[in-house]
Amino acid sequence: MNKKLHSNIRAICAQAIFNVLEDGQSLSTTLMLSSHKIAEKDRALVQEICFGVMRVLPELNFYIHTLMSKVLTGKNRVLHYLLLVGIYQILYTRIPEHAAVGETVNAVNDLKKSALKGLVNGVLREFLRQQASLQQKFIQDNKQQTSQTLHPSWLLNRIKQAYPQQWQNIINANNQKPPMWLRVNLNHYSVSEYQQLLAEQQIKSEAFADLPCAIRLLSPVNVTKLPYFAEGVVTVQDLSAQYAAYLLAPKNGEQILDMCAAPGGKTTHILEIAPKANLLAVDVDASRAKRIEENLARLKQVAEVKVGDGLTPEKWCSGRQFDRILLDSPCSATGVIRRHPDIKWLRRDSDIVQLTELQHAILTNIWSYLKTDGTLVYATCSILPDENKFQIERFLKENSNAQLMGDMKQFLPTAQGGDGFFYAVLKKSS
Ligand SMILES: C[S@@+](CC[C@H](N)C(=O)[O-])C[C@H]1O[C@@H](n2cnc3c(N)ncnc32)[C@H](O)[C@@H]1O
User: Fold this and answer.
1) Is the peptide bond before 263 cis (omega within 30 degrees of 0)?
2) Residue 2 has pLDDT above 50, yes or no
3) In the prediction, which pLDDT does 1 show?
4) In the prediction, which pLDDT does 5 show?
5) Rounded Cα distance, 90 and 102, in Å
6) Residues 333, 260 share a domain
7) Ligand 1 test: best mutation among 328, 358, 377, most atoms within 8 Å of CB?
8) How far is the CA of 264 from the centre of ligand 1 (A)?
9) Cα–Cα distance between 49 and 17 in angstroms, integer?
């Protein structure tokens, strides 16, 4: 289906959402694969619709299931997602209702389902007629139910269990659009100097007292609008992710391993702090590893990049030992749901146990490549204790030569702040 050339962006959105929810592709991947079919001017709207539908999926499904006695299945399933696209535009965008309905109905032709144009038109028009009472019904019928939180129940239960006081704030933060954070390369400009450059382009921003390089934009902009972006003066990176390199505290001349490094957001930060470190960046995914190279090139930095599996370091590490290791572990990504709302529908409860075992195995394998007195920073963008606090407690129990430095840091997502992130700094004794 991906190979077909769509001209109607609603058809592209419906197909992308189908690919995520029926085929298990990540939304970013499926949109990247279809990007050649989307005109530059339409990119922002496609993103807005697709990410938006993922954010409020249970609400949109509720309306369709209330309006239609039979759900669309089989070859016509893609039209179910087109209907979600239509209703999302009516409820959550400034597109006038008649245009939202008209364009969505036109997309039926592009999806080669012309015979069902009348059905799509009818359901959307019925939604408009009943909109107020349906919205009321969604709130009333779901008062006690998890769909009101727009999260799957297994995840909601885990979050409630881990954070009995804060779960509501976490859910609220997850359901919002993410803020855009920048990391200024302090080798070129200070934060206040770069804020001046932004102000000259009418881009409003705020600095953040705790980190010297972080800036939040009051509204997101395309990176091409950021002064000297192409020259590597600034990088888009969430606030919480910016702690990694500081906690690692790399020094020039040291041997450093950036494990699970792609696309290289933290690799480039490490080299901003210690440009003369001997850095090896490794990731198992060859296509993602390429993006480390691209990011290094943009920032004019030098590092060795290898495709390698954290489970088998002996295959790519050839006995090298490191002063510092950053392990940015594969995880549930439950801390970045507002950036990737498709995570809510792609992950399963059973994934958590598997991920926890993978993390434990990579951490254990990599540990033996750390020099005595060396430092390892374990990081995840998860908010689940199994992947974080409990993972580290288990590791400390199993490895008497591992010592926790300071407290573990569990950041939770907040509306205008950083993503959910976890850090533990471990030191190795002899
Ligand atoms: C959280 S992302 C890393 C983000 C990156 N550190 C950054 O700051 O841009 C996790 C990465 O782990 C990689 N990964 C997953 N399993 C792996 C394994 N067994 N060995 C090495 N890398 C792995 C994934 O390909 C993914 O790129």
Assistant:
1) yes
2) no
3) 46
4) 54
5) 11
6) yes
7) 328
8) 9
9) 10
CA gap 169, 412 in Å, rounded? 9
pLDDT at 247: 98
- Whether residue 13 lies inside any domain: the answer is yes
pLDDT, mean of residues 328-338: 98
What is the C-alpha separation between 216 and 183, in angstroms, rounded?
9
From the CA of 379, give the closest atom in ligand 1: 1
Which residue from 243, 247, 284, 363 has its CB within 8 A of the most atoms of ligand 1, so it is best to mutate?
A: 284
Tell me, yes or no, whether 285 and 430 share the same domain. Answer: yes
Give the C-alpha separation, 172 to 182, whole Å. 23
Six-digit token pair at 75?
């070859």
Q: Which domain covers residue 98, as residue numbers?
A: 9-150
167 located within any domain: yes
Same domain? 70 vs 134: yes
State in Å: Cα 31 to ligand 1 middle: 20
Determine the average pLDDT of the residues in 146-165: 93
Count Cβ atoms below 10 Å from residue 369 Cβ, excluding itself.
Answer: 20
Atom of ligand 1 lying closest to residue 362 CA? 19
- What is the CA(262)–ligand 1 centre distance, in A? 6
- pLDDT of 355: 98
Q: Which two tokens stand for residue 34?
A: 């279809």
Interval between CA 241 and ligand 1 midpoint (Å)? 14
- Of 51, 426, 417, 29, which Cα lies nearest the Cα of 242? 417
pLDDT at 143 > cutoff 90:
no
Residues with CB under 6 A from ligand 1: 260-266, 283-285, 288, 309-311, 328, 330, 362, 381
- Specify the ligand 1 atom closest to the Cα of 326: 6
Q: From residue 201, give the alpha-carbon distance in Å to each of 204, 205, 228.
A: 9, 11, 12
Nearest alpha carbon to residue 235 among 159, 142, 300, 309: 300
What are the structure tokens assigned to 151, written together?
A: 């999260």
Report the predicted TM-score, pTM, of the whole model to 2 decimal places.
0.95
- Going by the annotation, the residues of the binding site for S-adenosyl-L-methionine are 260-266, 283, 309, 328
Task: Provide the annotated active-site residues.
Answer: 381
**Strand-strand pairing, 234-236 and 304-307:** unpaired
- The per-residue pLDDT for range 160-174, each reduced to its tens digit, is 999 999 999 999 999
Q: ipTM, 2 decimals? A: 0.99
Both 189 and 160 in one domain: the answer is no
Amino acid at 89: Q
